[in-house]
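Dear H.,

Thanks for agreeing to be a second pair of eyes. The structure we're designing against is below in token form, covering all 632 positions.
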């Protein structure tokens, strides 16, 4: 009966938004995948051999046979691409997780060579001919989407001028990111009168030659900006810290922006922002600017960026005396730490209860003994195997130091099952709420990849509009922070200091997003960049800009996300609205993944939300919902 009701709901939703799709069953049995799981990702001993094999295929002259169907042509292309992408994604993983330097370097070289050869393949004239031959046979929206994606990639990589500029921009982008992370050889310098608020020990350490002097490091910055009691002094600390990379990274940023502007001209766009935003939900620079402006209008006033940490510390100290009373009056059992086994079991229980998914641990040889391997199955009668995933949760020498999800295989109907890995650095014994948040966030990405199998590789996995890629993961993360869910899954909730910094932090993020957008809508020079910063600071901080607080030269996301940096905010605010509706039982977990992952064939979030809420929604409706919490 539940499956019948689910099917009826999906049919109604599809009719409402007037989409015509190829036939897809609307239930968890609709996961159409290969009956065989992918080969387990092992110790990487054969990565060199497999890499050579796929690159041999990529560099061979591409030939194709005549066909009388769309699939007849596209399957030939994907027959070369799927093994290549599998090896590429595995090499990314190995480069992150291996301690053996020889194998790690082999993996790094493999990903570089394979990526380059995939792009070169797309640039071949005969690939363009194959796509043109396939075009008349495209008969439904999914096939037209596949064709557009492949043709777009062919058009880019068959243009020699574009590829040369893109290659140079990629190099400069890497240099910019590297410089943004390098510690600077510079010092904070403040009058001695600024020492008020620092401890005696800190004053003894920082007072030199009748001045406050300290190396410009993250640690010293956080100490000074949260403890010095004079706001003008904190403002000076902020100014010196934010501008620390100006001398070493200014030329890299200006060259990167100039190269991107050239790229836009080659592609016949007025500026790089509109080129980059074509692959997003908001589509244009004007729409992004409207979103940022509408969001900041809805916010109350906030302390300046150099004041909020100090004010938060003072507020937190005033709360310390209330901690015991708050814990006694709490309806939940509050803890500071949880054991990892409890959190993992809680996560798997959530999947069973809310998403109709079952997790089974399996034994397999992997790249390290710490790694746990699981199979994900549906709870339908046939308990269909949906995916394989890997949890590499703890730090070790040679491993990537932050937390990330790696999509290893995209699920392609009747070709291969999906698989993913989480490469995390969480403690072995005690997890705080921060660690739980990281696990759930990255697991949200994992679910997105493994529950989004499609008939074609290029639209499978996490292949949605680029400004909402973070939204499902953010929704899953926020879900883990809900006290009621923590109590239900873990038997306790995490205690918190209840100091709210969301408003000033959000304003700073909005400022950075507006900055990233502005830099890609016009020609940027040494002369106008600070003027742009000052105007944006007034609008988004509500405070005057300290000249020289040039945070852009340390802002590595300018090189990666560029004008799409707003995506983090857009995704988070959308996730918050969805979480509120989930809590109010507008939909359940099964309905969420059905609409967002399984049935999202066109990769358009507007249509996914229309399916979820069972009504046609415009972009204006969604923007108002996100920025002003207007009910859908």
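And this is the sequence the design step returned. I haven't edited it by hand at all.
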């Amino acid at each position: 009966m539940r499956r019948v009701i689910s099917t009826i709901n999906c049919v109604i939703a599809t009719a409402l938004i007037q989409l015509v799709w190829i036939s897809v069953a609307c239930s968890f049995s609709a996961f159409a995948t290969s009956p065989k799981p992918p080969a387990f990702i092992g110790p990487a001993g054969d990565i060199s051999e497999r890499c050579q094999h796929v690159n041999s295929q990529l560099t061979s002259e591409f030939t194709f046979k005549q066909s009388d169907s769309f699939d007849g042509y596209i399957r030939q292309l994907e027959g070369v691409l799927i093994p290549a992408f599998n090896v590429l994604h595995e090499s990314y993983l190995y480069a992150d997780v291996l301690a053996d330097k020889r194998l790690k370097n082999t993996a790094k070289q493999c990903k570089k060579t394979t990526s380059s050869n995939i792009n070169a393949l797309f640039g071949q004239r005969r690939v363009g001919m194959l796509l043109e031959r396939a075009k008349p046979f495209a008969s439904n929206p999914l096939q037209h989407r596949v064709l557009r994606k492949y043709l777009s990639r062919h058009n880019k990589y068959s243009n020699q001028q574009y590829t040369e500029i893109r290659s140079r921009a990629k190099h400069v982008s890497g240099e910019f990111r590297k410089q943004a992370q390098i510690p600077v050889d510079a010092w904070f310098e403040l009058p001695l009168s600024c020492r008020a608020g620092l401890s005696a020990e800190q004053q003894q350490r920082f007072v030199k030659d009748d001045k406050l002097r300290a190396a410009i490091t993250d640690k010293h910055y956080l100490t000074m900006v949260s403890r010095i009691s004079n706001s003008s002094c904190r403002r000076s600390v902020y100014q010196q810290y934010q501008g620390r990379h100006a001398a070493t990274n200014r030329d890299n940023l200006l060259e990167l922006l100039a190269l991107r502007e050239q790229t836009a001209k080659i592609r016949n766009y007025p500026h790089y922002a509109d080129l980059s935003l074509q692959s997003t939900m908001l589509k244009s620079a004007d729409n992004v600017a409207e979103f940022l402006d509408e969001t900041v209008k809805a916010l109350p006033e906030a302390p300046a960026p150099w004041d909020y940490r100090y004010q938060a510390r003072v507020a937190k100290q005033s709360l310390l005396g209330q901690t015991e009373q708050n814990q006694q009056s709490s309806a939940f059992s509050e803890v500071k730490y949880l054991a990892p086994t409890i959190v993992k079991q809680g996560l798997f229980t959530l999947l069973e209860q809310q998403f109709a998914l079952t997790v089974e641990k399996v034994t397999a040889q992997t790249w390290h003994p710490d790694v746990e391997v699981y199979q994900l199955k549906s709870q339908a009668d046939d308990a269909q195997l949906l995916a394989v995933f890997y949890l590499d949760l703890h730090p070790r020498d040679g491993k990537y130091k932050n937390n990330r999800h790696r999509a290893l295989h995209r699920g392609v109907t009747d070709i291969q099952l999906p698989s993913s890995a989480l490469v995390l650095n969480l403690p072995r014994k005690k997890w705080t709420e921060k660690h739980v948040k990281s696990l759930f966030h990255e697991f949200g990405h994992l679910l997105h990849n493994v529950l989004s199998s499609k008939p074609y590789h290029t639209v499978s996995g996490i292949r949605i509009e680029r400004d909402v890629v973070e939204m499902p993961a953010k929704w899953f993360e926020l879900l883990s922070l809900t006290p009621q869910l923590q109590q239900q899954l873990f038997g306790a909730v995490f205690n918190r200091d209840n100091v709210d910094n969301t408003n000033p932090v959000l304003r700073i993020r909005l400022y950075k997003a507006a900055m990233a957008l502005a830099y890609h809508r016009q020609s940027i020079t040494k002369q106008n960049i600070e003027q742009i910063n000052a105007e944006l600071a007034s609008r988004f901080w509500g405070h005057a800009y300290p000249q020289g607080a040039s945070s852009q030269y340390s802002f590595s996301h300018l090189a990666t996300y560029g004008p799409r940096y707003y995506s983090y905010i857009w995704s988070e605010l959308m996730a918050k609205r969805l979480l509120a509706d989930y809590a109010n039982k507008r939909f359940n977990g099964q309905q969420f993944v059905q609409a967002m992952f399984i049935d999202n064939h066109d990769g358009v979030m507007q249509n996914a939300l229309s399916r979820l809420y069972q009504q046609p929604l415009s972009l204006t409706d969604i923007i108002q919902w996100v920025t002003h919490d207007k009910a859908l």
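Two observations from my side: Residues 167-181+245-310+500-565 form a domain with the Neurolysin; domain 3 fold (CATH 1.10.1370.10). The radius of gyration is 26 Å.

Warmly,
E.
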